[in-house]
Amino acid sequence: MAKKIRSVISVEEGKRILHGDIELEIDEMYISSGQKGEKNLDRPPRKRGLRANRGRGTFEKDKPAIVTFVDRNTKETMFFVPEHLSGDYVIDKMGGHTDKGSKITTYTDEYKMYSKLESAGYQHKVVNHSFEYANGNIHINNCENRHSLLRPFLVIKRGVSKYNLQSYANLFQFFFNKRLQSHNPVEMVTQAINAIINFLYFLQCLKNQQFLKLFA
Question: Which InterPro entries does the entry link to (predicted)?
């Protein structure tokens, strides 16, 4: 049931679109996340949990990235878990989750892959973390704030499979963004339940339609 809830919320959050003049902070975090719950893995079992290697990781090496978008104007937040992180991936997600008529200014650190943003037509402002954490209004502090909240949310799950990481990130995203609209926890849970009911009703309609085809 918990997996079904995460799946439904992931569908809902996957439709999120940013509108208007967008000041978009973009950053990524890395978290140790292997194949928890998977059986018959082609490797010997680990005696202890995944060891956190320093620096940037990859999905293949069980340290996937979580790319974070934060719109400074609305405070809306989105998370994406790529199997292959690249500048093209970031640009693709921006195109899919921002309104076509929006004016977008992006803020990132000096990571080389973000250099593609300017060539893709976006205004791009960079803070070099080798020297400073902010240069006036050029910073990614909001992204780092979201990371500081998401990381303990994932840690209390005592290990999340990298294949489920997106749905867990979307669950956190859902409640964080709903909190911007209402601080009433009952209302937030009610909205989540309504989304689940609507999705299950949609699935039932599809099943009934398939059933009717048998008699067509």
Answer: Tnp_ISXO2-like
In a domain, 101, yes or no: yes
- Asked whether residue 195 is domain-assigned, the answer is no
By C-alpha distance, which of 116, 162, 106, 170 is closest to 138?
106
Q: For the chain, how many structural domains are there in total?
A: 1
Buried-state track 140-151, b at ≥16 Cβ within 10 A, e below 16:
bebbbebbeebe
DSSP string, 148-207: HHHHHHHHTTT---TTTHHHHHHHHHHHHHHHHH---HHHHHHHHHHHHHHHHHHHHHHH
Instruction: Collapse the DSSP code of 8 into the 3-class scheme (helix H, G, I; strand E, B; otherwise coil) and give the result.
Output: helix
Q: Is 98 helix (H, G, I), strand (E, B) or coil?
A: strand
pLDDT of residue 8: 80
Q: For strands 22-30 and 123-126, give the pairing.
A: unpaired
Q: Which residues does the chain have with pLDDT short of 50?
A: 47-48, 211-216
Q: Which domain holds residue 122?
A: 16-181
Task: Kindly state whether residue 88 falls inside one of the protein's structural domains.
Answer: yes
Q: In Å, what is the CA distance from 1 to each residue of 7, 80, 158, 161?
A: 10, 23, 19, 17
**0.70 cut: is pTM over it?**
yes
Answer for the pair 143, 71: CB distance below 8 angstroms, yes or no: no
Six token digits for residue 108: 């990132």
- 70 three-class SS: strand
